[in-house]
Fold this sequence. Notes:
Blueprint: H1 2-10, H2 26-37, H3 57-62, H4 75-83, H5 95-106, E1 115-119, H6 126-135, E2 139-143, H7 150-155, E3 159-162, E4 180-183, E5 187-190, E6 196-199, H8 204-207, E7 213-214, H9 221-240
Parallel strand pairs: 1-2, 1-3, 3-4, 4-7
Antiparallel strand pairs: 5-6
Amino acid sequence: VKAKTKAAKEVGIDVIDHHLKESTNQNDLITLINQLNNNDDVNSILVQLPLPKVINEEMVLNSILPEKDADGFHPLNVGKLSISPKNDDNLMIPCTPYGCLLLLRELNINLSGKNAVVIGRSNIVGKPMAQILLKESCTVTTVHSKTNNIKSICRNADILISAIGKPEFVNKDWVKEGAIVVDVGINRISTNEEKSQLVGDVQFNEVKNIVSAITPVPGGVGPMTIACLLRNTIIAFKKSKKI
């Protein structure tokens, strides 16, 4: 959250942080969102996830106006992602998957026809990531906890996107030599009683020597997520001013 606020201010976006108590109920949260929906000085709204379990996450996210949906999670924006043309620059796209795509584009390779495997089927990363890769004409497979032969499927991937939230779950036996690996996972593990560290879903040190490219954790996908959040905010601002 601090990184998002810092990045926004660096590019000249005003930030209003609402740090709510854990005891805040769903009605109070939606009331606040509605106030922001009706405030013409607020161009985009982000609800930091996860929410306490007593709050219905879907209802809260759906209460944000689609044109102010900084995360791109509203059903209307999700639907537009599925049916809109590949190069529609006005889409409010989920930030982490779009950040992954921008990283892949930086490699200057032809994504068309590549065999891409996405580990995870969440609404936040897995599902929109698959849609985005389809738009790039990749052949996309989504695997998850119920998938049979998951390791062998991943070993056939030219591009492997891991977004399952299990620390260092993917090892070198899951990865094809020369593949591109994008590690979306951010997991905090204890190194001893007093210290902890952030790791991804992939065993970085084990995999890095056999792949053509891999993102580190931290410092890989995270900054891209923030950059795409700023992108969505600018799009929302331009739409509100009919620019």
